[in-house]
Amino acid sequence: MIKSPHSQVWNTDAIASKEKFSYWNDALCSSLMKMDLDRRQSGNFNAELRLLQFGDIHFNHVLSDEHVARLNGAGISRLDNHYFYLLVQKSGMLIGHQHGVENFLRPGDSLFVDSLHPFQLDFPERFECISVRIPRSLLRPFLSHPQRLCTKVARSNSDLGKAIYHYTHYLMNDVGQRNAVANKGATNAFLGLISSHNSNQKDESLAGLQPAGIGHLSKIKRFLHRNYSNSELSPRLVAKEFNISVNYLHKLFAKGSVTFGTYLRELRLARASEILSDLTKMHKSISEVALEVGFNDLSYFDRLFMKKFSQTPSAFRAIAQQGD
Predict the structure, then answer these.
(1) Full set of structural domains in the chain with CATH
(2) pTM of full prediction above 0.70
(3) Among residues 113, 110, 115, which one has the least CA distance to residue 130?
(4) Which helix (H) or strand (E) holds 7?
(5) What distance in Å separates the CA atoms of residue 132 and residue 147, rounded to the nearest whole number?
(6) pLDDT band, very low/low/confident/very high, at 61 (cuts 50, 70, 90)
(7) Do residues 249 and 236 make contact, with C-beta atoms less than 8 angstroms apart?
(8) C-alpha span between 152 and 202 (Å, rounded)
(9) For residue 2, what is the DSSP state?
């Protein structure tokens, strides 16, 4: 193992052939989590793990031959803390299993797993990925629905998938290059970007609503996703669109655990973060981005963006450009 102030490296180069996979098992268990590893193939095995620490967040750059990693109940009980893991696939395939859901990842895709619950990560071929370990206590304040975080892949061809991919690479390649204040801002911006992945997923936390209410709220949210760029959107306008009262509209959102205003604001900010991170849209000015997502007051947009991401829109965009 090789150490520096911000990183540690494990690789199998100097390990005897018969002991390489056992060494890899020990390296992963000590640095990531108490997982059980096995292989479906016999023969030579080579791998490298580079761990970079960015405050409380650990970035693990993994290059490895095929194997399967499992976290079961016994492993969970041995953990001294719990984390979310963001898996960003760079090459090869990953088949992830958690919460009864199977997800297939190809290069550029991203997926979360949660160490509070069993999961399996199947790498059927040689692969390269980045695993980002984030303490639950650090990420939880940024999540509106944490139980949904691990059920959907951020695809490489989506704006959000591209943003996560580029921002992850930027942070990993720039560890130790900024002061504490800049590190905190970049970390919060990264966590805010993750929260947009969570907020863009299908809402399943509607247990307080009757079937008719669930149907109404789902249709209203689809309407907001199609029309968030309209700066004139208001409870009154939406209520009129669906032939319901403003009071009933607010009750629907209240039972869904978030207000109408908060939902629309978070939707717009999430979309703004995706546009600002999209390298094909760098020609757009900050004011154009604000207008595109429904903010006609640039100062108000700047304040909201800064509050959510701990970065100005311009600084957020600059980080995405550097991560290219």
Answers:
(1) 2-179 (2.60.120.10), 211-256+258-322 (1.10.10.60)
(2) no
(3) 110
(4) strand 7-11
(5) 18
(6) very high
(7) no
(8) 9
(9) E
